[in-house]
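Issue: ligand-bound run for BES - logging full I/O for the record.

Environment: standard queue, default settings, no custom constraints.

Inputs:
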Amino acid sequence: MNISFADISLAKSGALAVLVTEGAALRGAAADLDAKTGGALKRAMKAAGFSGKVGAMLEVMGPRGVNASRLILVGLGKSADLSAAGLEKAGGELFGRLEKSKETSLSIVLDGISGAKLPAGEAAARVAFGVKLRSYRFDKYKTKKKADDAAVSLKSLIVMTRAAVAARRDYATLAKIADGMFLARDLVNEPPNILFPGEFAKRASALSKLGLKVEVLGEAQMTKLGMGSLLGVGYGSQHESKLVVMRWMGGKAGEKPVAFVGKGVCFDTGGISLKPPAGMEDMKGDMGGAACVTGLMRTLATRKAKVNAIGVIGLVENMPDGKAQRPGDIVTSMSGQTIEIINTDAEGRLVLADALWYTQNRFKPKFMVDLATLTGAIMVALGKEYAGLFSNNDKLSKQLADAGEAESEKVWRLPMGAAYDKQIDSQFADMKNTGGRDGGSITAAQFLERFVNKTTWAHLDIAGTAMASPKTATNRSWGSGWGVRLLNRLVADHYEA
Ligand code: BES
Ligand code: MN
Ligand code: ZN
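Outputs:
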């Protein structure tokens, strides 16, 4: 999708959309178009009962008096309720309506569209952002691609506004966020025979061209570091496990970094505690946490964020095999703590245990936020609307909750505490890797907390939000890229110089 910004001109050919707020009489560009068409817009509005309600669209095909092949009025609802999210949604819905319409170009006019905290330039940029997010496709494995491509006709968008300069500037940042989200979506969508740990590490390494420092640790190095918890998960796999460290040092020299840690299980069969077949293919997305961290690091680098940020991802494949780890095995983590394996399908926490310990030990970060498709139980609790938030810190929790509301990637905090922690005590080792059915997402978080060593920390359980996402106005992709927007805002709002 080619996206650009221009001043308002009603002489465009192709599809021409005008965003209008609810109730008010047609003004500005909309009134001009009505005049040019000899009143066709007003007549159509009356006939269809269109008043500009949120989500309403009115299309006039082949109108007289203008070059446009069709005019589309798009309702934004009450002007007092205008929001960035609402404008993104309008952009996404408009793209959805026109992508296969045979139109190749769309112009969207925003005339006098702005809100209390939403200047006209940003409003226009948000519409473009919505179009961009909706236009994401993952069709590289479709060999009948040509035929499909022909069906998607819409190739270019011009957003017309009197604040084109500001819109261009605001959109430049949003496009970098979108690119980070698209990288995360791509990684989650890739099949597991292609995206195994080594290949994931290679794609992360490619980000070094953006100014990120990327290190890849293999099994020999992790063995030296004593990462018996992470390494045990990969024993059954033909693919070498990897730990990738990405560093973006855009902040002051010597300033403590912020750190993001991702679960990267490139495929989760459950291991010897094998999962049932139905839906197992979805476990290619069990690296959604690592994908988010990678996409986020990309966004921070491309927008040259004034922050020191570390991204650490643990990449493994969980397979059943003669060499695979067994229930009953006891492994020793890098922290020195021993873990009795009860269920080899509770592998994400084993990967994160060493990744978290390594991160705090090496970088002494201000905080660590980990993301993991950790438990099915989080979907029982929260569905796909909210990710689970667990934390040892109220301030960081509040910052994450606020950022989530602002970016429509919502998080809901769940409790932690000693009673839950007791559920993972083991009779043979320092702890066991499952705590039973009750409070399954919470005991998983308790397990992680044993590896953060008092560092300020938050854990996001994204099993419900990273993959198999409900289709929304701005996302049609199976892998959502969830978390990139949220964490980018966390950094931008609180941790940039
Ligand atoms: N990757 C799964 C969690 C998951 C399930 C993510 C469904 C996305 C969709 C995780 O490794 C897992 O298998 N968790 C187990 C833990 C249990 C064995 C304690 C689960 O949730 O059943
Ligand atoms: Mn599992
Ligand atoms: Zn898993």
